[in-house]
Every structure is written in structure tokens, then in C-alpha cells.
Specification:
There is one protein chain. It is built from twelve helices and no strands. It is mainly alpha-helical. The longest helix is centred in the middle third of the chain and has 18 residues.
Length: 217
């Protein structure tokens, strides 16, 4: 497993590769980000960003979602996978925000995960991006990169990956680390076609070594 020192070197290198790593889900309010992250489950940010402009312009305020029939919300996000379930989540979470949280998106993990469709990953994204709370959201990219680069064991759960990163990375760097690992996984260390031949970490990535040997064979 990578030591704290080695991980710091890795993150420094990734920062040089992706100096502008950031949340790529378009939004202008905490509510829009919550909805965008809910929509992003099993879906690319690119597709979400194609759907949300129409959704957000049609429903610019919390009250608009409360008044909208469920089928109208479904229609607005029809291009998104699992759109019916996600429309229900949007309807339910906006009602809860209105009735239980005074119309404001909650700013604590405890309250955020009470919202329908919001799990720990979504809550961490909202805490970090909207409220400036240090957090590491473990999505598929963060999990894949953390295991390939031996930051954590291959059999680690999502929560174990998060806890390992929190232990090895200084708290003030959690949010930046989250974005760096996402960009590295999304644009370099991809699930199916990772760019191993130009990877600065191939020497200690077992999968990278295997792929490079296959290329040379």
C-alpha cells in the first residue's frame, strides 16, 4: 500500500496533469447540485449536463418542483437512465427540504443522507462543493484509481476507501484530492482503456504492469 509520503507525491503529479480539476456537474445552487448528483447515478456527467439546463430553467425554484406533477419531471429527465426512479427522488427530496429543512438544502452529512436518493457519496459532494466542508466522495473513478494505485486494498469497500483516503490525506486537502482522483480516473486511468503507456505510476500499478507486458508481448 502507498505510504502517506508516496501518496502525496502521486497527488502532486496528478495535480500537474489536471491543474483545473473541479466538479463538472453544472449548477448554480445547492439544490441544483443535489439534483444533478442524484441524476448522475449510473450516468455520465456529460449526459446530466445536457439534461439539467432544461430542467433547471423549467423549475428554477424549490416551489416549482413541489407544484409540478411527477410525470412532468419524468418527461424533463427522460433521457437519463432510471429516470422514473430519479424523478421520484427529486419530488420526494424537494418536499422534504421544504417541509423538514425550512426550504434550504441541509449542510450536514446526518441531514443530507435523510433525503431520498442521497447517499454518502452525494452528501460528500454537496458538503464539499456547496458548503466548503472537507470531504472525499468516493465514486467509481475514485474507487478504481485508489485500488489500482494501491492506496487501499483491492477488496476494500467504498466506505473503507473513503476512510483510508481520509487517514492518508491531510484534511484540508480532502476536497481537492476527490476532484484530482476523479479527473485522473475519468480522463487517464479509465475503466476499460487506461492510458498505461503514458502513466507516471505504471511501475507500482499491477494492472498497468500487466497491460504493458501484454503490449510488449
Amino acid at each position: 500500500m502507498l505510504t502517506k509520503t508516496k501518496l502525496r507525491d502521486v497527488l502532486t503529479q496528478i495535480d500537474k496533469m489536471f491543474p483545473n480539476a473541479h466538479c463538472e456537474l453544472n449548477h448554480s445552487t445547492p439544490l441544483e447540485l443535489v439534483i444533478a448528483v442524484v441524476l448522475s447515478a449510473q450516468c455520465t456527467d456529460v449526459l446530466v449536463n445536457k439534461v439539467t439546463p432544461g430542467l433547471f430553467s423549467k423549475y428554477p425554484k424549490l416551489e416549482d418542483y413541489l407544484e409540478a406533477p411527477l410525470e412532468n419531471i419524468e418527461e424533463a429527465i427522460r433521457k437519463i437512465g432510471l429516470f422514473r426512479n430519479k424523478a421520484k427522488f427529486i419530488k420526494q427530496l424537494t418536499e422534504m427540504i421544504a417541509h423538514d429543512f425550512g426550504g434550504n438544502v441541509p449542510s450536514t452529512m446526518e441531514d443530507l443522507i435523510k433525503l431520498p436518493g442521497v447517499g454518502r457519496k452525494t452528501a460528500n459532494v454537496v458538503l464539499s462543493v456547496c458548503f466548503g466542508v472537507p470531504a472525499i466522495a468516493v465514486d467509481t473513478h475514485v474507487e478504481r484509481v485508489s485500488k489500482r494505485l494501491q492506496i487501499c486494498p483491492k477488496n476494500a469497500s467504498v466506505l473503507e476507501v473513503e476512510k483510508t483516503l481520509m487517514k492518508k490525506v491531510p484534511k484540508q486537502d480532502w476536497s481537492k484530492t476527490h476532484h484530482l482522483l476523479i479527473f485522473f480516473g475519468r480522463y487517464h486511468c479509465k475503466a476499460q482503456n487506461p492510458n498505461c503507456t503514458e502513466c507516471p505510476f505504471a511501475d507500482f500499478c499491477k494492472e498497468g504492469n500487466q497491460r504493458l507486458k501484454a503490449v510488449k508481448a
